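Late entry, evening session. Most of the bench is empty. Finally got around to the prediction I had been postponing all week. Sequence below, unchanged from the version circulated by S.P.
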Amino acid sequence: MIQPTAPDTALPLDMIIFGGMGDLAMRKLLPALYMAYLHGNLPPSTRILSTGRQELAREAYLAHVEEHSRSFIASENFNDKTWDGFLQVLEYVVLDVQAAPDFAALGAASRPGAQRVFYLATAPSLFTLICEKLAGAGLVDTNARVVLEKPLGRDLATAVEINEAVGRHFAESQIYRIDHYLGKETVQNLMVLRFGNSILEPIWRAPNISSVQITVAEEVGVGSRAGFYDSTGAMRDMVQNHLLQLLCIVAMEPPTSLSPDAVRDEKLKVLRSLRRFGLADIARDTVRGQYGHGVSGNQEVAGYLEERNVPPETTTETFVALRAHVDTWRWSKVPFYLRTGKRMARRSSKIVIEFANPPFPLFPSTVGGVANRLVIELQPEEAIKLQIMAKEPGSGMHMQQVALNLDLQSAFQQRRAEAYERLLIDVVRGRLTHFMRRDELEAAWAWADPIIDGWGVLGEKPHAYAAGSWGPPESFALLARDGFSWVE
């Protein structure tokens, strides 16, 4: 393994995308790189080399980008002249990851002395082979960086295997394990909300907080990803990475600085403090679901078992809800409720901090009964809402819940970069804070694996829920027995 040097921003940049003809590259990566190019956030000498097995001339590749990528750029951001300039930095290299000569051709296409960023937008099963072939072709040097897409493995054992294989060729400081949720403006703002405001820190703990909810709901079904999704499921696809990362930011202690390792050290402590699940805990505190036929977006949609490329009678979950605990003094006895699912009532990602009610009910009871909540909306809107109680107009002392609402879109007029754009710029500039470290990833798998294995031992089918709903009734019962309810 070559030891990396400090980032050299003066070097020309060669961004090399493996899987460059794929869905992720066309929908997310190339539009994000266009936006970075548009706003001058890429080095002037940048080139983007997309690899694929198809035998295409460069002109045919550019036509493919026009057809499949351009439409994912918002019209207000599109500029014909800039787009033409962006196309000039794109190259296409025919490459079969099994063929060593193709890597020699990639080496010939990449400039000597360039800062090489390898983005592995492929199946994780190819990560090891690609890194070996890159090293064998002499393309991994002290300035190289590699970006690994999720899911990184399908359990702890495969994650360790991939980490060790990649680590034979790249130092940890050269490896960027990407989770696009960590690039969202509101997620990064959560760090400022927590540690930049002294008003919140004294009450950000038990017993002042009674529960925490984290929801990542998707309105779409599995679509064209059915083949991949059925071998993965919601636990591996969403909970083990996205939701646990959000939980870490909510629950972590203040870091000593904003350096990458200081922040990731605190997140690692949270993952290691998560209470492990036994079989009885899994049966009581987890809910698996699978969507059936229903109505979504005013249209009838098929159930999961009716989707193309989904095996009949599969028991893969498209929904997970669970109750977790962080066993530290700060979070003693505070339940963390995590929920994610496909084909739910609407697209919504939010964090809800529910504060304890006043110790003595001085005023008449109110519908809902919750005095204060902090609601952090991640998508589709980005907002922070503090729900407090106020007196209703008129005689008497009846209360009503009102919201102090910070709309981040209107509060800040400057453009807000999308998650992939922000993270790709971080990679180019050598910023590791918003990427997962190896021990962090492995700690997340160590917590998730017993739950997945336990579901297999219990042998229960996922609970059915209608497409366009908020999931199976059992997920509501999970909270109701603790006296809580999901905040929709």
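Two things to note before I forget:
The two ends are 49 Å apart (CA to CA).
The chain has a mean pLDDT of 91.
Will write this up properly tomorrow.
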